[in-house]
Amino acid sequence: xxxxxxxxxxxxxxxxxxxxxxxxxxxxxxxxxxxxxxxxxxxxxxxxxxxxxxxxxxxxxx
Length: 62
Known about the structure:
globular, 3-stranded antiparallel sheet, 1 helix, 3 strands
């Protein structure tokens, strides 16, 4: 089941900050094998992954 585009929850790192983006992790050739909502701080950390298997999408905060 895909996550809603208008997700308004908190960061998956349990820091209490509101999520601002989706972090998509690629596995087995699937671009969005798993997607998690993260705040800017924790999302930036995940984008440093040297494997290059991590991409990001903004959350729609409408």
